[in-house]
Specification:
8 strands; single chain; 18 helices; alpha/beta; Rossmann fold; 3 domains
Length: 434
């Protein structure tokens, strides 16, 4: 008995607590936010350590990520410990029992629960999160592979991944993981996939560290209903005629953006399809803050031809935000605007700047967004000097000397450098698509 008491005391002193809700025990360490507004639901970031780690292993890094993103006070951070050295299927039932317990105990918003894992923890979350999408909205996964994704008739309704692999990782190089990511995308699941030149088998660092937090903040659980107050708010828009005036107020759209996810999508669609330019602009602005669903992204695209300049530019900003999180149709629409010489000069420039923003991290090792890269390369020969400058600034980080390209030079002087850029692009991205 004495040894049991001493053992329990050691766990408490180490910062661990053991909970057996429903008979399913899991060791965890919790880190509440330093300052939190009472009555405001917390998000939750669950940390899954690498092999031979413990519940404390990722807490510091998780807190650093949130602190840099200036959202530390919005989340409780919890580290959990696997039953064995690393994470296995044996951990599924304890984790499934722990998440609802933690949501209830710490008054967490169940639509804002996310995983964060490194190595073994990332491998585990890459499987567990999509397979348990009623528990997790998504997962930030560093240097972990993936088994087969779950069978699904609606893969886009599953939890999403922010998935990072390192070119300097000798144990899990991109050559092993890229086919797994390709299969995940081909099956219809959603993820942001990054391969980083300077990343080894390690946890998060910039620039993906900050980017992952922005992704997480934009994502909501697709299967968990909003709370009662939010449901009542959304229900007011079932009658489009009665809700018309509410769509004109900024406070409405702040509330819609805070709810986010497919649950709020019908209201956004009403706004994007409104006859009033001001409402269309406010709805598009909401798309610069949070993800909703594919239907919303599809509805943004026609606004690129809107008669109102503000609506068009806000739609470009919305599509840029959605394109960063791998909405293919958003990326393709911006490429089309940037290439179209019949479009307004300002719209083309804004679209090109959006493409540069989307591809910024992709150009540090992944090169997944091939249409964007080819579009930017094509703009190196555009008649608009500002477009050439934007495209060159986006591409230059991959080649220190820029192959001698000068945006302000005449066409003949640029031609040789453009040929070298084209050769680079064919080697890196494959042939230009029709």
């Amino acid at each position: 008995m004495k040894s049991l008491i001493l053992g329990a005391l050691a766990l408490v002193l180490a910062g661990f607590t053991q909970d057996t809700d429903g008979g399913k025990g899991i060791t965890h360490v919790e880190k509440p936010p330093p300052k939190h507004r009472p009555g405001t639901p917390l998000g939750m970031l669950l940390c899954f350590h690498g092999a031979s780690g413990n519940a404390n292993s990722l807490l510091g890094k998780a807190e650093e990520m949130l602190q840099k993103g200036e959202v530390r006070d919005d989340y409780i951070v919890i580290g959990v410990k696997s039953k064995e050295v690393g994470w296995t299927d044996k951990d599924d039932e304890p984790v499934k029992a722990f998440i609802p317990w933690a949501i209830k105990t710490f008054q967490v918003d169940p639509r804002r629960v996310y995983g964060f894992g490194v190595s073994s923890g990332a491998w585990y979350l890459n499987r567990f999160a999509p397979a348990n999408s009623d528990l997790l909205a998504g997962s930030i996964s560093y240097v972990g592979g993936m088994g087969n994704p779950p069978a699904s008739k609606d893969p886009k309704s599953h939890a999403e991944l922010y998935w990072v692999i390192g070119h300097k990782d000798d144990s899990l190089p991109p050559s092993r993981v890229r086919p797994q990511a390709d299969a995940f995308f081909k099956a219809g699941f959603r993820a942001v996939y990054r391969e980083m030149f300077d990343h080894a088998h390690e946890g998060p660092k910039e620039p993906t560290q900050d980017d992952a937090v922005h992704w997480m903040r934009a994502l909501r659980n697709k299967r968990v209903a909003p709370n009662a107050d939010d449901q009542e708010f959304l229900k007011k828009f079932d009658d489009a005629a009665r809700s018309a005036s509410a769509l004109s107020t900024a406070t409405t759209w702040m509330r819609v953006a805070s709810i986010g996810g497919p649950q709020a999508a019908p209201v956004v669609l009403q706004g994007l399809e409104s006859e009033r330019a001001g409402v269309r602009s406010l709805a598009a602005q909401a798309c610069t803050q949070v993800m909703f669903n594919d239907k919303v992204v599809d509805a943004l695209i026609p606004l690129l031809a809107d008669t109102d300049t503000k609506v068009r530019r806000t739609a470009i900003s919305g599509l840029t935000f959605q394109g960063k999180w791998h909405y293919d149709q958003a990326q393709a629409a911006l490429c089309a605007v940037a290439r179209d010489e019949k479009r307004a000069e300002g719209d083309r420039r804004a679209a090109a700047q959006g493409l540069a923003e989307i591809v910024k991290i992709d150009l540090i090792g992944t090169f997944y967004y091939k249409e964007i890269i080819w579009t930017l390369l094509g703009l190196l020969s555009d008649k608009d000097a500002a477009l050439r400058q934007t495209a060159f600034q986006a591409l230059q980080p991959v080649q220190a000397d820029g192959f001698g390209y000068q945006p302000g030079a005449v066409a003949d002087q640029r031609a040789k450098a453009v040929r070298r850029w084209t050769e680079w692009c064919e080697k890196t991205c494959g042939p230009r698509a029709p």
